[in-house]
Amino acid sequence: MAEGYLTTHVLDTARGCPAAGLRILLFRLAEGGRVLVAEARTNADGRTDTPILPQDSFAPGQYELVFHAGDYLRASGQAGPAPLFLDEVPIRFGMAEAAHYHVPLLLSPYGYSTYRGS
Fold first, then answer.
1. Using omega within 30 degrees of 0 as the cis cutoff, is the peptide bond preceding 90 cis?
2. CA angle 115-5-15, nearest 5°?
3. Helix (H, G, I), strand (E, B), or coil: what is residue 71?
4. What is the pLDDT of residues 5-48, one digit of tens each?
């Protein structure tokens, strides 16, 4: 069994709180394109209830998390005029070894950042 796994969370930096109810898709990037691996929603703490890629599904490679920020921003009253500045936020990253990877999203209506967390 692999020892690696992937977690994520989303913080609403404009409001200073976790981003609850935000839809997240995880894709594995392959030569033929993207393959959907998992889908989750953030809980009240801005985290998924379980790792978005658990140990039993882990494989090194290139991945993409797609955060559906626009739906969250509309629901929280932060969307602003259409078209939204941020709607779907893709983050592409690689996982080279069987380890814990944590890829959070710090989100506001007009900007975001990410990093490899712990």
1. no
2. 40
3. helix
4. 999 999 999 999 999 999 999 999 999 899 999 999 999 999 99
